[in-house]
Amino acid sequence: MLDIQLLRTDLAHVARRLAARGYAFSVTEFNALEAERKMLQTHTQDLQARRNAVSRQIGNAKSKGEDVDVILAEVANLGGELRQAEAQLAQTQTALQQMLLQIPNLPHSSVPEGNSETDNREVRRWGTPRSFNFTARDHVSIGESLGLLDFPTATKLSGSRFSFMTGGLARLHRALAQLMLDAHTREHGYTEAYVPYLVNAESLRGTGQLPKFKEDLFEIPRKKMTPTDVHSQNGTDQGALSTEGQYPLEDDNLYLIPTAEVPLTNIARDQIIALESLPVKLTAHTPCFRSEAGSYGRDTRGMIRQHQFDKVEVVQLAHPQQSYEALEELTGHAEKILQKLELPYRVMALCTADLGFSAAKTYDIEVWLPAQNAYREISSCSNCEAFQARRMQARFRNEKGKPELLHTLNGSGLAIGRTLVAILENFQNADGSVSIPKALQHYMDGLDRLTA
RNA sequence: GGAGAGAUGGCCGAGUGGUCGAAGGCGCUCCCCUGCUAAGGGAGUAUAGGCUCAAAAAGCUUAUCGAGGGUUCGAAUCCCUCUCUCUCCGCCA
């Protein structure tokens, strides 16, 4: 969420920066709502002030044993007037709030301008894609001929966009999680966390997935009686239960996490963190669940795009003055994993048009996939500045002892499914076996290759 | 699932209709005193917002005592609903 003060004082600038990332912000709509809010708020507060004054007066008079009827008569209709004003104010403030919740973050000044992902800027490359003296196969073909990857079974169990792995491949998957967690906790200073995989709507609002991206989430309905429900069941209205009463309230529902960023970042919601505890650095290995609504036909083959995948996430809650250093550092932590695994990659600075909703700046890390002859996203590292913190009221006590909004950062360190894909494809051998990167062998009891 | 208790400021804790944003204590900050230490004295110490203002300072003002609704001229205090925490019983990986 953007700072409404900024909108009030420098609306033109905000609109311009939003336009840079392809978001058409309606200045007139905002101005109209703002004017209405101002008028109603002033009016309401005047009435409240008057009510408070009169009430105090009555209290005074009563304690002196004076007659209060005159004063009471004077404010006879104040109540109704106030009630109406308060209702109107609440309505426009809700409207304003809803509008604010839909607006994406402003891009940082260092973010390259662009109109599409083709304008993303390559920052650096690491490693050299291997040249094959045989035709490189894709991970599906490799995994299936090893007998360790079985999409038909996954489809039978759940449907498309799920995977089923066995034996050495399932173990390699686990080994990757171990390697990543160990690196982040031992070498990069993160604290390991175990987190809920189901979270409430408030958490998702905090990190920005709600209200705008509800269709990307898996929602778990909860049966719950509402007050209207109880009444209608008690009898008077035998007809149909109101739909509102019959179905659970949306806000009580839980959602499967699309990324551990949600639980990890939301630990700071409604908190004031001590200055000396900054930066808070957390990592967690979790499954991630995404509906992939709207991605029909994209990456349908293989385990690149799944409804369920595992990821080791890194999150930092940082001092605003250090958050851009932290972004570089955090991106480096994710890169370090690829280096350990000897997987070639490149780092892309996303352009204004390609930024995610909450991000002020993002680096994508793309790993080389021989079968696709392309670099593909395997990690995304973002500084959200105070955008999420403002939604969450996540603060720290600054040098002056005053609460101030934190900056939140998150990154994949890394997406495990895609890392597995990269290993299968980059470490495949002509005989169909797959070598295991040295860094992982320790986690595989010394095994150095997967064979059929 | 059943029965009961509770939720107040950084913390503890008082407050059952009127001047309470909230006594008192602890903690913290500043000052004074004391040649160190210990002790003592004084002052200060919530957050978010609105309006006035070019801005700052300042002033005025609103809201917030778990959340939402209600009663009332007036609610931390009374009523209703919900959430969470704790204790006991039951059940359970």
Task: Summarize the entry for a quick read.
This protein is of the alpha+beta class and 452 residues long.
Question: What report would you give on this structure?
Answer:
The protein has 452 residues and is an alpha+beta fold. It is 40% helix and 19% strand. The chain has 16 helices and 16 strands. It has helices spanning 4-9, 11-20, 27-63, 69-74, 78-102, 139-145, 151-157, 167-187, 201-207, 227-233, 243-246, 261-266, 323-340, 387-392, 416-426, 438-441; strands at residues 121-126, 191-192, 198-200, 219-220, 254-256, 271-273, 280-289, 308-318, 345-349, 361-369, 374-383, 394-397, 403-405, 407-415, 434-435, 449-450. The protein has an eight-stranded mixed sheet with strand order 1-9-10-11-14-8-7-2. α6 crosses α15 and α8 (167-187) packs across α15. The two termini are 52 Å apart. The model is unreliable at 224-249 (pLDDT under 50). The structure holds one RNA strand of 93 nucleotides.
